[in-house]
Amino acid sequence: MRLGQPSTQDQDNDLRRLLSRTDPTISGLLERTLEGRDLSVEAGLRLTEVHGPNLHALVMVADEMRRRQAGEAVTYVVNRNINFTNVCIKHCTFCAFSRDYREEEGYFLPIEEVVARAKEAREMGATEVCIQAGLPPKLDGRFYIEICRAIKQEVPDIHIHAFSPEEILYGSTRSRIPIPDYLMALKEAGLGTLPGTSAEILDDGIRDTISRGRITTRQWIEVVTTAHSLGIPTTSTIMYGHVEQPIHWVKHMALLRDIQRETGGFTEFVPLSLIHQEAPMYRRKLVKGVRQGATGSEVVKMHALARLMLGPTFKNIQASWVKEGPKMAQYLLTTGANDLGGTLINESISTSAGAPHGQLVPPAELRRMIRDLDRVPVQRSTTYRFLRVYDDRDEEADPLDRIDDAEERFGSYQKLTASDRFRYTRGVHSSRLTAGEEGS
Prior knowledge:
Layout: H1 9-20, H2 24-34, H3 41-47, H4 52-70, E1 73-77, E2 79-82, H5 111-123, E3 128-131, H6 143-154, E4 159-162, H7 165-175, H8 179-189, E5 191-193, H9 204-210, H10 217-229, E6 234-240, H11 246-263, E7 266-273, H12 280-283, H13 296-310, H14 321-332, E8 339-342, H15 349-352, H16 363-371, E9 376-380, E10 386-389, H17 406-410, H18 413-418
Parallel strand pairs: 1-8, 1-9, 2-3, 3-4, 4-5, 6-7
Antiparallel strand pairs: 9-10
Helix pairs in contact: 1-4, 2-4, 3-11, 4-13, 5-6, 6-8, 7-10, 11-13
């Protein structure tokens, strides 16, 4: 199989015929992208409005640009999520994961447990641990540094992909260490990359509506650009399907594109549609006009538009099987996406919001999904270095492929919050928290 496959003359002719039957304005915009020109904010907004044959044309052109920019490879990473606490001082209305420190369901994994889970993940074939959590009150800001150092001492060859910009800001503030110095301390302790989460929509009007008091757009940009300047790559994300409008999608992507041209530090773009079922903004009607997540059409448009707006500057667009389910994620590989994310093992944030997926998709199942599209499965590193190209169908099973019941083997968010083993209580983890302090 070929990992890179330029367009054939037949494919070019098919596209030309398709565009000849498309609205002239839309076909003109799509032809510009095929010529390698940038999509303006105005042009991107116009493409969010397409339906019917015009939507089909958008998808076909996005798939063609994916082929040109990323080839026929579809990548994935073998990783484990470790959400070490759900206790948080913030009250974001979209988050069903967090708990106040006084709530019975609050938990906190000590560093020893985080390390044990990282070690178990490595033994199961993972190359990455993804660590994100709530913001516990009065946390010792050096706790994040200690986590990295402890993992690297026990599991030196695993990649630590950890701490959202919100957590970096919190750790910097709590430790009274400036952001550049704090990030450098994390890097020296073993941090490899940052998740570009806590972005939601990079528009402060939207942020004030759905997560007042959260990290601002300016602060988010400061953290990620500082990380890039220090040689710490980050991902980038968007969360949509709530109260935003398509103009916010386009401006968000245009902002990411500008940052990428300046720093080159983003590894990928990950669209994340709102899981609404348990989100307080929807369930408790905390925010007026909240939608029930993105529609199928919106999900398709988002990924296709991401390919056309962002593909020229960073080629990796991820389809989240956690948010969309494996079947939809597979389809999104034909609308501009070239990556399926990770095996995850213990994703808790989406599952707590009501997502039926998130515990584990074994590597063999990811490869089956990829091969079903006649594409090439590739296991990658966090930074998209190809680790193994699967060019044959007869292969030995990975350790994760042998797991019959992932929830029984690794536990679940529901079991964790119901158990007393790691219950968060006042005064617990006193070596990590300022003794005797409570609240936010």
